[in-house]
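To the wet lab folks,

You asked to see what we're planning to order before we commit. Fair enough. Below is the target structure as tokens, and below that is the sequence we designed to fit it. If anything looks off to you, flag it before the synthesis order goes out.
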């Protein structure tokens, strides 16, 4: 009887969670495709080729398992991505294609290429090789154990190779991808093979793909696919010493030797630079300049400064105007008095939100260049590549439409959108309006081919260039009678008066975009530290005849096969069970750890169970989570946990519900308000205590974040909570309240932060001596109310790129802090009687295989005047060892 009320309250908490979106499932011979109803046609398209791709890749990788591959298709993001997940093994595909075409322009079908890449992950990493062949009884997750020791380049190398060999286009067929290693080689700034095992903080951000493609392409071309499979098998059998021993046994060369051979094969001799750098070449990227009423403006990014809008003088000296976090230079377009830019944000409160497939938007903002005030133009749209006319009166953008992009007109006064160009299978990207907005140039991409199209008001579109298999990029008006554009990273000019196309500039780092301002041509070119801004007098430009390749052929399925589908229920699936002895009273006791999750990751059950020889009772520590639409229910259970001071077994069951109440995200800040009710029941052999808690938390955080911000950006966080505790007889209720405020402030324009915190707790019982401690020291006072104040200086120690076993050290930071406390008892205020000071050194390590970061730390603290000293060592804020 006494447990009915807690059970009823738990049921009420669970019912507060909304039902998930309407997910469906469609099966082919080898796959199970899970999708929302709105994406049915795209799921049918995927199903039309899924089995063919599976059979081709399974043969290539000698994959023999028979279970269907779970494929989750997500159509609510505002960016392109896809990944293979473990626990459980599955493939996620984002329907949105990349507006920056990172797979190259010859990728004729985004879903096809993405599926090839991610399915290769599934077949490679999900194979039962090495010890996993004999341990499959532990669960399908056993195949992922060796990936912890696997370098990132081995994981991404075979997939980048496959996307190039088994689909049109791919990174291996892309000139921009090749430049990332060719320019680094030429400039003597290439990373090592060990650094290629993880993504570091410096350019290029995709080096595990680059390193992997070079290694695997050379390996398979020289020794055959059998060599890759044999190396993989030998590594999985004993992964602790890395891949090099397996390379040596199979090829006769170490992995480092193979990397050297691959680099030498791809080394190129480059001509001298034509232009001159506009600014000194430091780490980061500088994008194209635009003439405005405030002078020449341009956007740039760097690890130390983040994204910044600069004003440039004629000598290249630049002045900081404002911080602005954008997704590259194509996210902003300048008029004389204003600028139009797109801003990505995530709505974690949407009913269809999933942690693995978030609901995202890309909205437009209009920036006044004189006041630097901004106005939101659209709301909850999916707009990229904005373009505004020079007079600021007309704007267009590309809108995500499944895996394609349509061209829309944007009313700057109310955000109304009007479709200008939309065609199934065609993406309209990189539009450019002329000065008065009477004409625009836009790229039309279809089936791996590129075309340049001219659109004038009240006239039919005119095809200027293409379709061609050559990659076209960055059309920009050159006056009113010519258009500059890039073809295979060489700059071309289309004369609208004569119809003549000429090649005017080639550079070792390619020309990625260019604009003529007066008698100077400014352009972006790649270097080993990122895209850089160069300038050359117009008089030095060439005039060579232009030639274009024929379009590549493409097979188009007009009638998709019909696949039946049915509703999908996201149930828990078994992943892994491992022996996991636990320590009780300084003695090891037998136990196991297990892990279960659902395919959409809406549910998980993780825990450990064992047997206590001392008490002859089962022991358990279980955590269940249910995540739907931004709401989260978590249930924890601790059963028969031995308490050494009470010398008895304790039990605890709790349920906590997180409910977002308000969310907003802007280019300047993001704000979130959430409520968290929870229930808990504690009992032992003597008594049972129930507790109900309600807390309200809010936070406002700076949107601008730099790579160097080791401790994050500036923020302000507040929370207030009240807890009622009672014996289950309900004869007396005790109240506990907590108010917490924390602020982190950036010091000037640096990444050093000053953090201040004030925590206040009250209790109707008093007995606050063990609450709000000063670090790990035992409190020296007691009372009915307690206040703790803290102050910390948090200093990044720099960005690093230091290889360590199985990954690398990418950053570190030092925090120096001080805190003390005050008590209120019977109306009297008393001080703790001591100050505590401490210092914490933290590092950021990235594991190469899973690309997961973790932060080990060592912390020291001293209680001033009490001669108490402590040292703690831990991971991600949790102390493992204290003395």
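Sequence we intend to order:
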């Amino acid at each position: 009887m006494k447990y009915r009320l807690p059970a009823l309250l738990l049921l009420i908490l669970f019912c507060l969670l909304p039902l998930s979106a309407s997910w469906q499932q469609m099966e082919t011979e080898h796959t199970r495709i899970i999708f929302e109803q709105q994406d049915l046609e795209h799921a049918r398209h995927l199903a039309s080729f899924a089995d063919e791709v599976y059979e081709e890749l399974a043969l290539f990788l000698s994959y023999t398992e028979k279970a269907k591959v779970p494929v989750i298709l997500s159509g609510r993001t505002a960016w392109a991505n896809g990944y293979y997940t473990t626990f459980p093994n599955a493939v996620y595909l984002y329907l949105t294609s990349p507006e920056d075409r990172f797979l190259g322009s010859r990728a004729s079908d985004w879903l096809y290429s993405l599926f090839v890449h991610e399915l290769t992950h599934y077949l490679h990493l999900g194979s039962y090789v090495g010890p996993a062949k004999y341990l499959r009884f532990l669960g399908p997750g056993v195949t992922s154990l060796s990936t912890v020791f696997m370098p990132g380049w081995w994981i991404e190398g075979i997939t980048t190779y496959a996307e190039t060999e088994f689909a049109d286009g791919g990174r291996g067929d892309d000139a921009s991808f090749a430049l990332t290693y060719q320019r680094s080689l030429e400039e003597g700034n290439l990373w090592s093979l060990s650094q290629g095992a993880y993504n570091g903080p410096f350019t290029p951000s995709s080096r595990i793909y680059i390193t992997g493609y070079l290694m695997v392409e050379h390996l398979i071309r020289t020794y055959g696919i059998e060599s890759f499979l044999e190396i993989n098998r030998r590594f999985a059998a004993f992964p602790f010493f890395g891949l090099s021993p397996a390379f040596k046994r199979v090829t006769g060369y170490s992995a480092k030797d193979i990397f050297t051979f691959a680099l030498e094969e791809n080394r190129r001799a480059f001509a001298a630079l034509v232009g001159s750098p506009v600014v000194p070449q430091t780490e980061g990227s500088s994008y194209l300049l635009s003439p405005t009423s405030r002078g020449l403006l341009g956007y740039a990014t760097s690890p130390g400064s983040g994204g910044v809008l600069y004003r440039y003088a004629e000598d290249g000296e630049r002045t900081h105007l404002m911080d602005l976090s954008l997704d590259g230079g194509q996210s902003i377009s300048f008029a004389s008095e204003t600028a139009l830019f797109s801003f990505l944000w995530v709505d974690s409160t949407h009913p269809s939100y999933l942690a693995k497939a978030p609901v995202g938007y890309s909205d437009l903002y209009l920036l006044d260049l004189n006041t630097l005030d901004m106005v939101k133009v659209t709301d909850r749209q999916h707009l990229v590549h904005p373009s505004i006319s020079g007079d600021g009166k007309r704007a267009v953008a590309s809108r995500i439409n499944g895996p394609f992009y349509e061209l829309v007109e944007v009313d700057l006064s109310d955000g109304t959108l009007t479709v200008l160009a939309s065609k199934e299978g065609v993406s309209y990207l990189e539009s450019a309006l002329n000065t008065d907005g009477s004409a625009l140039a836009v790229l039309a991409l279809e089936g791996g081919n590129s075309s340049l199209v001219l659109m004038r008001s009240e006239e039919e579109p005119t095809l200027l260039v293409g379709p061609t298999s050559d990659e076209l990029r960055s059309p920009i008006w050159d006056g009113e009678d010519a258009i500059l554009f890039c073809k295979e990273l060489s700059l071309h000019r289309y004369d609208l008066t004569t119809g003549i196309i000429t090649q005017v500039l080639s550079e070792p780092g390619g020309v990625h975009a260019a604009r003529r301002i007066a008698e100077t041509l400014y352009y972006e070119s790649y270097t080993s530290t990122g895209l850089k801004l160069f300038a050359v007098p117009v008089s030095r430009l060439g005039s060579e005849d232009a030639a274009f390749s024929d379009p590549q052929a493409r097979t188009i399925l007009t009638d998709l096969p019909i696949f039946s589908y049915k509703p999908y229920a996201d149930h828990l699936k078994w992943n892994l069970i491992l022996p996991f002895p636990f320590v009780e009273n300084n003695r090891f006791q037998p136990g196991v750890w297990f892990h279960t999750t659902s395919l959409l990751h809406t549910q998980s059950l993780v825990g450990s169970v064992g047997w206590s020889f001392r008490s002859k009772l089962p022991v358990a520590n279980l955590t269940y989570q249910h995540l739907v639409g931004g709401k989260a229910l978590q249930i924890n259970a601790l059963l028969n946990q031995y308490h050494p001071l009470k010398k008895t077994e304790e039990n605890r069951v709790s349920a906590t519900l997180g409910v977002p109440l308000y969310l907003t995200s802007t280019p300047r800040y993001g704000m979130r308000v959430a409520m968290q009710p929870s229930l808990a029941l504690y009992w032992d052999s003597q008594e049972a205590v129930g507790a109900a808690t309600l807390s309200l938390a809010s936070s406002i955080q700076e949107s601008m974040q730099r790579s160097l911000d080791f401790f994050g950006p500036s923020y302000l966080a507040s929370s207030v909570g009240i807890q009622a505790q009672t014996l289950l007889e309900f004869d007396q209720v005790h109240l506990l309240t907590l108010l917490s405020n924390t602020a982190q402030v950036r010091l000037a324009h640096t990444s050093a932060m000053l953090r201040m915190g004030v925590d206040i707790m009250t209790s109707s019982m008093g007995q606050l001596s063990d609450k709000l401690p000063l670090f790990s020291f035992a409190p020296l006072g007691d009372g009915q109310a307690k206040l703790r104040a803290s102050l910390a200086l948090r200093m990044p120690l720099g960005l690093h790129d230091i290889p360590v076993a199985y990954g690398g050290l990418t950053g570190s930071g030092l925090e120096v802090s001080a805190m003390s406390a005050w008590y209120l008892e019977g109306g009297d205020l008393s001080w703790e009687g001591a100050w505590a000071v401490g210092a914490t050194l933290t590092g950021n390590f990235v594991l190469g295989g899973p690309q997961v970061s973790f932060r080990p730390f060592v912390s020291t603290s001293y209680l001033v005047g009490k001669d108490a000293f402590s040292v703690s060592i831990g991971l991600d804020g949790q102390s493992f060892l204290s003395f």
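Structural context that might help your review: The two ends are 45 Å apart (CA to CA). The first helix runs from residue 4 to 15.

Thanks,
Computational group
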